[in-house]
Fold this protein.
Amino acid sequence: MDDLEQKRTTTASFGDIADAYLDSDVHQFGADLELLASWCDGASRALDVACGTGHTAGALGEIIDTVVAADATPEMMETATEAFDLPGIVADAERLPFADHTFDAVTCRIAAHHFPNPQTFVDEVSRILSPGGVLAFEDNVTPNDEGLAEFYNRFERLRDPTHGEAQSVAQWQDWLREAGFTIDESVTVRKELDYDSWVERTKTSAERREKLEQLVRQPGAKEVYDVTVKDGAVHGFSNEKLLVRARK
C-alpha cells in the first residue's frame, strides 16, 4: 500500500467510527490530556493536528483564545467542531495548509502512528510554529527491542489496519532535534485500557479478533502490554505512551 492509498484507507476508516472515538474514555479523559494542555498554557493561537473528535482541542479551548482543530477525516473534524464549538479544517498532518510561523502552540495526541511519513509531520510543525512556540506531543511508542517492536506493530495492525508504525522514544527525539526543536520535557507513561473496548472501537472483524485473542496470550504481549489473564479472559492491559514538550 503506497502512502496515498494508506491515507485514503485511514480517512475512510475513521469516518465510520467517529462516534466511538468521541465516547472513548482513553481519548476523553486522563492525566496525559491535562498535561498536554498545560504545556500550551500562555499561548495565544494553537492548532490541534489530527484532532480526532476534539478532546485535546477542547481542553486547549479552555485556556487559549484561538484554537483550530484539524483532521484529515471530515467526519472527525466535524464531530470535533460541533462537540467543542471550535473552528476546524480538513488537513493532512504532513501537508498543513498554514503559513510559516502561524501558531505558537501545536498539539498532536495519540495519532502519529497513523502517519505514513511522521518525520514530514515533524518538519511541518516546525515550519508553522513561531520561534519559541511549543509542540505538545503524545503517541504510543514501541520497546527498544526490535523483536518486541515488531510484535507491537503487528498486533496493532491486526486490530486496526490503518495503524502505520509506532516508533521508539529515541526515534521521536531524534526527529524533533533534527527539525530544530529543543526538548524541554519527555516522559513515558503506561495507560490502562479496557481490552474489549479497545478491540471493538475499530470494528475489528471476527477473524481478526480471534487472531488477537491468540496473540494477546503470547509472551510478547506480556512484555509489551503488561497483559494479565484471569479465568481465561484478559484482565489487565496497558500500553506505553511518550509525551514530549518541545520548543521551536
Remarks:
- The first strand starts at residue 45 and ends at 49.
- The mean pLDDT is 90.
- The domain at 3-144+162-193+238-247 is CATH 3.40.50.150 (Rossmann fold).
- The first helix runs from residue 3 to 15.
